[in-house]
Amino acid sequence: MSDRKIENAKYEETGYCYTLSLIAGKYKPVILYCLMEYEPVRFNEMQRYLGKVADKTLSQNLKELERDGLIHREMYPEVPPKVEYTLTERGASLVAVLDKLCDWGMENRPQN
Known about the structure:
Number of helices: 6
Distance between the termini: 38 Å
């Protein structure tokens, strides 16, 4: 048993808290997983992959992931505009974490 005491512990100071602050939510992990598997991905492709997600919701999640340095948005000067998303080096560093989540899910999903 650990000698560590919870009295002085602060969740906000943990690496776990920081990581979750970047990838938590219904769509962010799925967006990162999609880019890990299929990059580059266009907005409409991402929307089809995710299923029923509003334009505004997807756009907001993509902006937050870009702001946090996890994805890169490349806009091409075409008509209509072409925009592609890829993982940044920082985002790619999460691949091992996402792979572990995937492995756990495959090992623990109910068998039908």
